[in-house]
Amino acid sequence: MAGRLNKKKASALVEQAKLLLNERAWARAEATLAPVVAAEVLPGSEHLAMYAEALDGVGRRDEARAFLERQLARRPDEPMMSVRLGVLLLQQNRPVEAAEVMSRARQQLRREPFFLTHYAAALLRVGRLDEADRAVAAALLTGGGDDTRLVQALLKAQRGDAAGAEAVAVQVGTRATDPAVRASARAIEADCRLMQGDARGALDRYRALDRDAVLDPDFLPHAALAAQLAGDEALAGAFMERRRPTAAPEDHLLFARVFLCRSQPGDAMVELGRSETALGEKLAGFEFDYRVTKGRALRLLGRLDEAAATVEAAQRLPDASRQLVGARVWLEAGHLAAERGDFEAADTAFARALELDANEDEARRAKALCARRTAWKQELAASAQARVDAARADAEAMKRRFLAREGELEAMRRELERARQASASAQEMAQQAASEAAAVKAEAAQRVREALEAQERDVEAKARENLETALGPALPRCPEALVKMVLVAERTYQKGLYSELPAAAVAVLFSGALERALFMLVVQPFDAWLDAGDRRRAFLARAVRERRGRRAEYFDRFVEAFDRSLEGRAPSLGEVSRALSRRHDAPLSAFQQFLVVQGRGEAFLDDLASFVLRAKERLRDPVAHGLAVDLGWDELKAFREALLFRFGEGPGLLAQLLASP
Description:
Elements: H1 7-22, H2 26-39, H3 46-57, H4 61-74, H5 79-91, H6 95-103, H7 113-125, H8 129-141, H9 146-158, H10 162-175, H11 179-195, H12 199-211, H13 220-229, H14 233-243, H15 249-261, H16 265-275, H17 287-300, H18 304-315, H19 327-339, H20 343-356, H21 361-422, H22 424-471, H23 480-496, H24 503-530, H25 535-542, E1 544-548, E2 551-554, H26 557-560, H27 573-581, H28 589-597, H29 602-620, H30 633-644, H31 653-658
Antiparallel strand pairs: 1-2
Helix pairs in contact: 1-2, 1-3, 2-3, 3-4, 3-5, 4-5, 5-6, 5-7, 6-7, 7-8, 7-9, 8-9, 9-10, 9-11, 10-11, 11-12, 12-13, 13-14, 13-15, 15-16, 15-17, 16-17, 17-18, 17-19, 18-19, 19-20, 19-21, 20-21, 21-22, 22-23, 23-24, 24-29, 24-30, 27-29
């Protein structure tokens, strides 16, 4: 047939193939164009590009690419061939090559909407957003249709305008007649929902597309992330496995984020390794996402210096200042600052994240936690200042006694002067007395200095000795922050034995140490225990006393600390005491189960509840409970003895809480 095909008949077949391509009848279009290509009777390249499109449509994508490369080698000046090859490269997740190939046709096709649309898509994939903006604008001015509008929506989303991108996608999905375009618009709409923090809404849209069998495989990683954020881990895994055989580097970035949501930073690092190109971390168009994701994984692995360097590099990229998009890097910067104990810097970073994404719940919760930690730090500083003021008062008293002695010596000098005038022998005696007085003064001053230094050394040594005695083998397991709080309280107690420091001032420090110990050794382990299985949901559901719209009012304020949807705070002494006392009530049964698993006996728990309540009422806030504020040293000593040395029939309360269950 190739030998009998003339130019007129070949042109007729090309027109017939155009109709078939519009109807997506790929196989028939390929069969129609094959003899035209073989005959080589037509000038130009339109029919060659159409043939490559038909090959791609029937699934022979590699064959289509090879065909276009051969034709371009023969006809390097045919722009549509370059465009069609670029489209194929883009579909094969090779955006850098696609952009480079299509750029050769810019001059000839600068007013061709098909070229401009696909060129903009390639530029978008490699992160050249300003150029992509210009290409999309030109495509729309020259008659670009729904496919151009979809690229415009993707560009808006990449710049952080998720709401604007969603509006464009909804508009295209509503009016488009092409099923493939409608499906793409619905998928982009789901992506925008995900960007705005609505993981459940995004997942519903992805699943609807999947049920209709029109979910593009390129969107499977996005669907996996939405499923994970919505709490459906099994579905997230299924979506990832479906995409793995054809996963692109950017897909592995999304897989890494899924694993980070599961608190599996090791698996996330494996996925990040799979996404690296020959240039290392330099991913075309995805460097910002790569660095932010890697920074979080390194932080969760405890490699804080590497994490900080990676996050700082991401902060220098333009994406760090974009709405929604940039919030993640500032969130990571805040977590790293908090890890280093710089809560002021952490608070600033979390605030910046909320400026870029007001719906970033993790940043909001972290900022609230920073505020509590900063307040605690200021309270601790105030306590330290109180101790300094007490030491200054002691020094001032010694100074007054010294000045009084100085006055006595001055009186003696005047008396000696009068005696010197009365008698020469008296003058000699006066000189000798003055010399002795100077020696006494110097000796007294030296004794004062030595006494103060010895007192400081004794206080420090006694405090550390008492802490080592109290905790014994459990000392290495005691958190450093708790050790510091107990040392501060014990030092102040030892100084109080030498000064007029009121017992109530020392009691505040010991009650603070008890509150911190309960948080670190009871509340935090219970919070971690709730992460296993379905415990947290069951615990919160059982403890609901009343629902008001979407907000639950819980049986006890203690429960709110474990609801991660709230801006919670650490339970107070009173709330922990009440939870211990009411642990047998049905809403707190999970707390009772945890205490039993920890090996805490009923007698110990009853004593602990009473002890914590006494600390709250007598040491921390006696006025609020109608009690006198004149706390005596005997009562403080009894509290300190129970906390450090003897609680019930065992060692001190801190040692028993630190003991392995």
